[in-house]
Structure to design on (245 residues):
């Protein structure tokens, strides 16, 4: 673990809201994780057409609070949201341990009373852009009838309470759609963030991306001729309850 400068990593995460950590997983570990992901995605592909979806209210916050209905499936211990054409968010239960480097970074911000979850993000060939959003819901009251919302308390006064860790199972690049972030927007309202720098982070096998769940981001379109699977961890304080599934 000595090769990882945790102070530099957490400082960049505090400032930018997102950081890449190189070579956290070995190639062998990624291959093992890929087998798990392939099993989950194979089950979804083979069975989802025979499932009856529930309707899921999918809230996003960017220039406005937006609510659209998505197909949601709960089957075989999988929680599946069809985000957009070619994209699934598949949550699942597992006994896989969080990588110790990830634990070390998260423990800098959240030392106790935290919840960890696993999931898989899929992106098929020629899939579309995902929507701009924060991973956290707005926790400072309801939006008005026009979708205007106040997130100033959440970004200006709260300490970090939610982190997402992306574990790409293939290298990420501009062609297959590495995630796009608005730098520093975990500490900014939409009006404060809308003109800020956009960044995209390419990765190699074994690299991970950690970001504060309050940062504005979106999955970009996959223009490659291969699927783009990404495993993820979510770690959040135990008092936070997602408005979800």
């Amino acid at each position: 673990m000595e090769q990882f400068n945790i102070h530099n990593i957490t400082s960049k995460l505090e400032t930018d809201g997102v950081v890449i950590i190189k070579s956290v997983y070995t190639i062998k570990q990624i291959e093992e994780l890929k087998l798990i992901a392939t099993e989950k995605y194979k089950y979804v592909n083979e069975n989802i057409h025979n499932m009856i979806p529930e309707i899921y209210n999918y809230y996003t916050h960017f220039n406005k609070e937006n609510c659209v209905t998505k197909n949601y499936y709960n089957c075989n211990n999988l929680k599946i949201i069809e985000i957009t054409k070619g994209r699934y968010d598949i949550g699942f239960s597992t006994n896989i341990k969080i990588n110790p480097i990830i634990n070390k970074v998260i423990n800098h911000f959240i030392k106790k009373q935290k919840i960890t979850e696993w999931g898989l993000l899929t992106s098929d060939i020629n899939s579309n852009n995902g929507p701009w959003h924060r991973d956290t819901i707005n926790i400072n009251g309801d939006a008005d009838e026009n979708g205007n919302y106040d997130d100033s308390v959440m970004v200006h006064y709260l300490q970090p309470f939610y982190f997402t860790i992306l574990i790409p199972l293939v290298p990420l690049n501009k062609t297959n759609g590495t995630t796009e972030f608005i730098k520093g927007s975990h500490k900014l309202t939409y009006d404060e963030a809308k003109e800020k720098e956009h960044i995209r982070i390419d990765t190699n096998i074994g690299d991970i991306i950690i970001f504060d769940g309050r940062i504005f981001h979106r999955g970009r379109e996959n223009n490659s001729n291969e699927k783009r699977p990404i495993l993820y961890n979510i770690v959040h304080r135990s008092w936070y309850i997602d408005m979800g599934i």
Observations:
- The longest helix spans residues 27-47.
- The domain at 6-237 is CATH 2.60.120.620 (Jelly Rolls).
- The chain has one domain: 6-237.
